[in-house]
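Saturday, quiet lab. Running sequence design on the structure tokens for the scaffold JK sent over.
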């Protein structure tokens, strides 16, 4: 178990909690969830020693070992700041570390946005507890918004804390795991307050390029080729989504009353589901069921 959280982190947490009276409950939840996560950390070397002694969980042992070599690569080859990040591990009691709530009006592609101290505004509200996230989604739906609840396996505290490795993403394939680690480290390297699109685009580029160099440098071309094939499949699916988005945008900004636009929206979404179903059958690619729903 790591040492207690340093008192130097208490001030930022208190500032979060005092950001606004109407948000005290939310920030108390977020601060409590983050502190609980930090208090649950175990050093990777200690976890590895325990697993070796018991001869258990070869997959976890391999991935934890990989993670430390990836961190060295990130510092030496990618010029990313690592410090004590991902030097510890937390076995969660849930499949996701947080759940994000997204919301938008039924006839708009502009999401509801929330603003936070230090990081700026973002089109989601994150919760450590799924039931809290669901309750928030229900309140937003009562306001006439459409909502989506998405589970998140990893997030970055942008260098405020030494982020741990989590059981929610430790079992990813080596390419996906490397891409995630480099992606999250990139957030601490460059973060433009309030510009989610740039931040995610930058981190995605660093994550992908870092993963490509990592696998190339370790002689795992077959793994890289397999991962790139999956990426091409996903890019094709995203092309379908972009087409759907453009069709929706045309309907939303066009003439016609709300009922007519809602009817047109239903047709467009039905077309998108049909396209994805055909694509999933033709490629044999898994993972589209949630997207189609």
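Result came back. Writing it out in full:
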């Amino acid at each position: 178990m790591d040492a207690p959280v340093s008192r130097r982190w208490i001030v930022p947490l208190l500032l979060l909690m005092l950001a606004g009276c109407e948000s005290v409950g939310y920030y108390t939840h977020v601060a409590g969830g983050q502190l609980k996560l930090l208090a649950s950390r175990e050093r990777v070397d200690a976890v590895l020693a325990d697993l070796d002694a018991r001869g258990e969980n070869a997959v976890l042992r391999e991935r934890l070992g990989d993670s430390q070599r990836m961190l060295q690569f990130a510092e030496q080859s990618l010029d990313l700041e690592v410090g004590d990040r991902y030097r510890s591990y937390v076995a969660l009691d849930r499949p996701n570390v947080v759940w994000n709530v997204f919301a938008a009006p039924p006839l708009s592609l502009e999401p509801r946005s929330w603003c936070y101290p230090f990081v700026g505004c973002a089109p989601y509200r994150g919760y450590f507890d799924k039931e809290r996230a669901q309750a928030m989604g229900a309140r937003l739906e009562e306001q006439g918004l459409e909502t989506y609840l998405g589970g998140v396996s990893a997030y970055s505290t942008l260098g405020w804390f030494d982020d741990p490795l989590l059981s929610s993403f430790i079992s990813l394939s080596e390419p996906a795991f490397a891409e995630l680690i480099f992606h999250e480290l990139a957030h601490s390297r460059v973060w433009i307050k309030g510009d989610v699109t740039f931040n995610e685009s930058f981190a995605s580029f660093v994550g992908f390029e870092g993963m490509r160099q990592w696998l190339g440098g370790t002689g795992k071309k077959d793994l890289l080729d397999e991962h790139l094939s999956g990426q091409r499949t996903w890019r094709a699916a995203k092309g379908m989504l972009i087409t759907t988005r453009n069709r929706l945008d045309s309907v939303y900004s066009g003439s016609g009353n709300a009922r007519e636009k809602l009817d047109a929206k239903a047709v467009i979404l039905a077309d998108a589901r049909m396209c994805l179903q055909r694509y999933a059958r033709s490629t044999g690619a898994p993972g589209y069921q949630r997207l189609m729903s």
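Notes for JK: The longest strand covers residues 98-104. The CA atoms of residues 60 and 188 lie 26 Å apart. Ask whether to fix the surface positions before the next round.
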